[in-house]
Structures are given as structure tokens and as C-alpha cells.
Amino acid sequence: MVFVDFEHWYIALDNLYHRKPDIKAFRDELSDRYDIIDIAFFGDFSNPSLRSEITNIRQISNNIIETQNASVNIEKDFTDFIMLDHIYQSTIMSGGRNIEAYVLLTGDGHFSSVVSFLVTKCRKEVGVYAVKDSASAQLLGSATYSRLLPDNTKVEQTYAEMILLNLKNLFDKNPRKKVRPTFWATVEAVSKYFNADKEEVASALRALIQQGYIYQVKEQVKDDTVKVMKINWSAVYRDKLIKS
């Protein structure tokens, strides 16, 4: 059985990595490991961003639980309560006989107790998937195993895309001016605009340079020599790092 806190997945992924959930890839990864009985998605789908994903969710599951409660001013905690109730109900109704493993996609520490219950009392394998840098350490430690999303390759791709989009925007806004982007000015601009970690941005920019998508040349600017970045746009578009 799989229980997905879609609010955690969508909002944390968007805020931290400016990506959307890859719902199909998640299902396919689990299918390689388990025979899936059901995947349940929980969230307040009155949120327009979450609602726009319903079509994608329905491609793999029709079990979508709307957690909006208009009668009280409770938001995220109410989603947690409903999801917790469904998890406990699944153990009671089936007696756990037909469920050998549980997978939870959430980062909230409120789920630590139910994970511990499933592992220690019910003797079930429990995997916890969560968004990187947005997960309770106690929750991850309670599980049989944990998996952080997105994986490192996708994180690197995200930062590379941020950098290239920032540079493209810089050139597009100054078509008649000689633009001279430098390494650290670009790191500062990208981290500020996307609210991204500076060290991660710098690491991704170094990788783009090592891979030949960006190179640096020295140019004379007034009385100073400045190391300016040049972008190999043909290679960037050829390899589909961003859209042209």
C-alpha cells in the first residue's frame, strides 16, 4: 500500500527545486520493487497548483482523497490527520494480512509514530519517500528504508537549468548591449532569484564549465581585466538543457 502526502511532495519540490512531481516515475520505481495494491493521494486540491496535477495523478490512480475542510481553519495538519486515519484503517480492515509493505511519501514528523507502529508492532517493511531538505530526521530514522527526492542527478539538472535560464534572460533583456556575465555575479543572481543554495549553484556552474557548455575568457573592461563567461548556446539547445 502506498500513501502519498501530495501537498508535501508538490509544495516542497516547487519551493526548493522548482520542479514538479514525476508521478509516473515514482509509480514505476515502486512497481520494480513491489506488487502495488493501491496508491492513495492526499491533499487540498482546492489549491490551483495541486488541482492542475489531478490529470497526471489519474493516469496511475483514481484514489484521490480531498482533504479540504471549509468549516474549520485547519490546513496542513488536517491533511496529515486524514492520511494517518487511512493508514491505521488499512491495518484494521485487512488485519494487515494482505499487505507486506507500506510506502509513505511525506516529510512530516507527525508520521513517525505510525511508521514505528507498522515496523515494530505489525512487522511490516516501511519505506519513506520525502523531498530532500524537507524531511523529519525522526521520520526517516523510523522507517525500514528511506529515499530522498529528487535524486542527485535531477538536482544538478535543476540548478543547471536555473543558471542557463538566468543567463538567457540576461542576454534577451540586453540585446544591444555587450553583456559580460561573471562567475560569482551569476551565482549571486541565480541564488537570489530562485532562492537557491549558493554552494549548489556554484557547483552546478563549475560543472557546466567542465562540460563545455560555458567557458571563460579574459576581457579588458576599462582599467581591469575581467574573466567573462561565454555560453555555447548551440550545445545547450542541442542537448536540451533548456528550451530555445
Count of beta strands: 8
Q: Main sheet?
A: 6 strands, parallel
- Global Rg: 22 Å
Estimate the helix proportion, in percent: 40-55%
Q: What's the total helix number?
A: 11
| Major beta sheet, strand line-up | 3-2-1-4-5-6
Q: What is the N-to-C succession of helices and strands?
A: EHHEHHEHEHEHEHHHEEH
CATH class of the largest domain: Alpha Beta
Structural class assignment: alpha/beta
The fourth-level CATH homologous superfamily of the largest domain is 5'-nuclease
Low-confidence stretches: none
What is the residue-averaged pLDDT? 91
Overall shape: it is elongated
Q: Kindly estimate the percentage of residues that lie in beta strands according to DSSP.
A: 15-25%
Predict the CATH topology of the largest domain: Rossmann fold
> Mind telling me which CATH architecture of the largest domain this is?
3-Layer(aba) Sandwich
CA(first)-CA(last) distance: 42 Å
Number of domains: 2
Descriptive overview:
This protein is α/β, with parallel strands linked by helices and 244 residues long. It has two domains: 2-150, 5'-nuclease (Rossmann fold, 3-Layer(aba) Sandwich); 153-238, Winged helix-like DNA-binding domain superfamily/Winged helix DNA-binding domain (Arc Repressor Mutant, subunit A), CATH 1.10.10.10. The protein has helices spanning 6-17, 23-33, 48-51, 54-58, 76-94, 112-121, 137-142, 152-173, 183-194, 198-210, 233-238; strands spanning 2-5, 39-43, 64-66, 101-105, 125-131, 145-149, 214-221, 224-231. The strands form two sheets. Strands 3-2-1-4-5-6 form a six-stranded parallel β-sheet, with helices on both faces. A two-stranded antiparallel sheet has the order 7-8.
